[in-house]
Structure prediction request, 814 residues.
Amino acid sequence: MPSESGSSLEDLRVLELTGGVAAGYCGKLFAGYGADVIKVEPPSGDPLRRRGPFAAEWPHRETGATWLYLGTRKRSVTLDLLQPSGQRLFRRMVEEANVIVESFPPGHLDSLGIGFEALRAIKRRIVVVSITPYGQSGPKAGWRATNLTSFASGGQMSLTGEPDREPLVNGGSQAEYQAGMQAFAAAALAAHQADVTEVPQHVDISAQECMASALELYLPWWAYLKRDISKRRGNVMSGMVGVFPAADGHIGLHIMPRNWPWFARAMGREELIDDPKFRDNYTRLQNNDELEAIVYAWAAGQSAKELYRQAGAARAPIAFVHTLADLLESEQLRARGYFHEVEHPQAGSLTYPGPPFRMSEMEWGADRAPLLGEHNRELYCEEMGLSGRELSHLRAAGVV
Amino acid sequence: MFRLPLYGVRILDLTMAWAGPYATRLLGDMGAEVIKVEAVNNWDLLRSFTGQPPTVERVWDKSPYFNHVNRDKYGCVLDLSQEKGRELFLRLAAISDVVIENFRAEVMENLGLTYETLSAANPQLIVVSMPGHGSTGPERDFIAYGTNVEQLSGLCHLTGYEGGPPQKTGISYGDPMAGIAAAGAIALALWDRRRSGRGQYVEVAQRENLINMIGEQVVAYSMTGREPARRGNRDSSMAPHGCYPCRGEDQWLTIACEDDAQFAALCQAMGRPELASDARFADVVSRYRNQDALDGEIAAWTRVQSKEEAAEALQAAGVPASPVLSAPEVFEDPHLRARGFFETVAHSVAGVWEVEGPHWRFSEAPAHIRLPAPAFGEHNGYVFRELLGLSEDEVARLEAEGVTGATPNWAVHE
Prediction:
C-alpha cells in the first residue's frame, strides 16, 4: 500500500527512475521521512544492485551494500521504459505522482515521449528533477561521467591531496551524494511550491554546479581579488588546522584564534601564548612553518582518543579520525541511538546509519530495501487496476 | 510572470561561518527573505577573511568569502545578549517563518531563545539548529567545525593515497553538506506546516548527516567486518580508473572505464588500439590486475596532451573523462559560462564582480542573484523602522545602548 508512515509526506509520491547513486540518495531521503517512493527499475534491475560487497560474499541482486543502503523504505516495480507499452504504463503512474527523479542523459526521457513537457500535460503540478553531471544544457551536457570524473569537474578535487602529488578523489561517492542531496532539497522545495501554486517545475541539477557552489574561499578570492590560493595543501593547512599523525591514529585540529591560549597550554608550551611570533592570526601565519613543526612533534606523542576527550571537555576543536569501527563503537552515536539494525530476507540483519536530520513532527525510518519488482502486483493491480492476466502479458513481453 | 518558490517566506538567520549561511544562501537564492542577524560583538567570522589589510575602509564588507556565501540576504545588527535585543528578536520571530542557528549547543538556551520560547511566540515557526554532534549525548558539548565533522564521520578515514594516511578533503567538507540538509529539512517542514498549521523543531547534527553520505560503507562494514583500504584514485572494480598527469604544471586528467567497450574506445583515442587486445588488459579482470602497467601506458599518452583536449577527445569517443579543474578554471569553464552560471553583482561597498549564481534551476521560476551580500547593518532601517515599526528616536536609543550599531568590533575576530 502507499506509505503508511503517518507522516504528512505520505501523500507525496516520488517515482525514482533508475539512475545511480545521486538519484538513489535523493529518493532515499524522501522515503526516510515518509514519502511514498517507488523505484521504477528495468526488469533486469537497477545497476546499483551490482555493486558489492554482498552479504554471503556472492554477488546477488538483493544483497549488495549500496543497494541495501539506498533502497531503504522504497517500493520496487519493474518497467521497461524503452518500450511503448512501458511508456504508456508510466504515463498512467504519473497521474498519481508528485515528483519524478531521473538521471538519464539530457534528452533521453524526451526521446521516449515521457520528458517534462509530456508529463506536465498529464499532471499539471508535476515536478521532474533531473540530476546529471553537467546539467541539461551546454557544451558538456552529453559528457559521460563516473564519480571520479564528476568530482574532478567541480573544483573540489584540485584542492584535495598532497601538493607534490596527483589530486585525490575523496572516499565513497561524494560527487554523486552531493548532487543527490542537493536534488532532494531542491525537489522538496519544488514539491512544496507546486503544492501551493500548482505550477510544475523541471529542476535541472548539475553535479558540477553543486560542487562549484561549495568551493569555500577559493573561488571567491579568484573572482574578487584575482588571487589564486587554490594550490593543494595536503593534510595540514597550517599549524592550527589539519590532520596530524598521533601515536595511535590521527587527530584533526581546527584551532580558532580564541582557542590559541588553551592550545599552547595543551602542548605544554604556555610561553608561546604571548610570544610575538604566535600571538595573533597574522603573526601565526607569518611563522607557520615553525608552528607546524611544534605541532607535529607534539601530536606524534599524543593518544588520539585521549586527546579528543580532553579537548572536548575544554571546548577546544580537536577530533580524531574515526574508522568505521570507531563509528560503531562511538559512545556518542550509541547514546543518540543513531545506528539501526535492519532485517532483510536475503541479506539478513545489518547495521545502517540513522537519520541525517531529526524533525520534531516528522518521523524517520529505514525499513528494508525492496526485492526486485516486489510491489508490481500491489501497484499495478491493486492500485492501478490491472488484472492479473494483463500483468502476465506485460511480463511475458518484458515490459514489466 | 512567476514567483520564486520561497516568495513570502521570512527566515531569521543567526547562523555564522559556512554551514548555516550556506543553507540560507540556498534558500535566499530561491526567493526567501533571509534576514541575517549579527551583533557589534558577535559578527560573522567570514567577514574577517578579507585578503586585504585591516586598514582598508569598511574591510569587513569586502570579504569575498563572506560576500559569495551571503548574497540574497538582508542584514541587521541586533545584540541578543541584551534584554532589549532579545525582546526585539522575539517580536521578529513572531512575524517570521523560520529561525535558524548554528551555535554551540547551549547558546540559544543561555539567550532564553529555546524552541519552547520561540514557538510560544509563534506556533508556526520552524526552528532549525545545526550542532556538530547533536543536542544529546556525552559529546554534545564537544566543538566540531567543518573539518572535524569530516574526521568524525568516517569520510576522512576512507580517503587517501594507497598505503598513505587518512586525508582531509580540500574544503571544510562537513559545512556545506550540513547546509544542504538544513535547506531540505526546511522545505519538508514547510510542506508539513501547510497540513498541520504548526511549525516544528529541526536538528541537523552535522556529523550524523555526513555519515549518511558514506552510509553504504557502514552497511558494507557491517557485512564484512573489514575496513576498506585507501586506494587513492583507484576503484574497487573499474580499471583504468585514475588521475593522470598532463602537459604543464599541476595539470591532470581523470579517466574511468566502466566496461570493455569504453576501454577499447580509450585505446583507439590514444592511438594505441593494440592495447585493447593485449592479454594483460583485454578483459575486465586482467585489466584490474595489471593496472600499474596500464596506468603507465595511459600516462605516457596524457603527459604530452593538454588536459582539455584529451578530455574532449575521450568524451567524443564515449569515455568518461574530465580534467581536474582548479577554482580559477571552474570560474573560466566554457561550459559553466555557456550555462550563464556566473552573474555580475554590484555590492554597495565592495564594488562589482562576478559571483556564481543559484544552481537549483527551476524551469518555471528561474532564479538569479537579487541582492548582494549585506554590508554590516545595511538593512537596520528596514528591520527596525519598517518591520518592527520603531521610531527614529527608539532606534537612536538602541544605538546608544549598543543594542544595534553600524560598525563591527574588529577585535573580536582579529
